[in-house]
Q: What sequence folds into this?
């Protein structure tokens, strides 16, 4: 472990940030992006995140957009935001914490937890930048996922 977190936690942070970056760039929901990329590609990104992280995120995103054949969509949560926007790195950190919590609580592999997180109602709540949910305490976001509701 170097720095404040383990290498794999940092790899997950980059993976989630890249998913967010691609989603914003192509105007798709985050769950659609992971489905379009597919499990094999997500696992590759996670496995080689330290390599991809050393390159420009725009270049890396273009590579995966082209590889997966992702075409422009119509989902634009950025344009509908009325307040200051969190960056793709900010949202990547939120998803990283959620995914690690899911993996720990359910005792499942991180990539399985990633797919569960992005396919949950919590993902829609995180992506609503007009609400305060995305900057709620990480434990509250995890509890909402685990409980299946927001309290």
A:
């Amino acid at each position: 472990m170097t720095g404040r977190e383990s290498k794999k936690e940092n790899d997950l942070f980059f993976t989630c940030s890249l998913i967010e970056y691609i989603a914003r760039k192509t105007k798709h929901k985050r769950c659609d992006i992971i489905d379009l990329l597919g499990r094999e590609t997500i696992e590759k990104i996670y496995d080689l995140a330290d390599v991809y992280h050393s390159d420009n995120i725009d270049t890396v995103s273009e590579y995966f957009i082209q590889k997966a054949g992702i075409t422009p969509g119509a989902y634009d949560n950025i344009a509908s935001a009325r307040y200051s926007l969190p960056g793709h790195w900010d949202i990547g950190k939120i998803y990283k914490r959620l995914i690690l919590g899911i993996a720990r609580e359910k005792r499942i592999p991180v990539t399985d937890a990633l797919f569960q997180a992005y396919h949950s109602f919590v993902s829609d709540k995180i992506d609503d930048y007009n609400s305060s949910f995305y900057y709620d305490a990480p434990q509250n976001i995890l509890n909402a996922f685990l409980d299946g509701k927001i309290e």
About this structure: The two ends are 36 Å apart (CA to CA). The mean pLDDT is 93. DSSP finds eight helices and no strands in the chain.
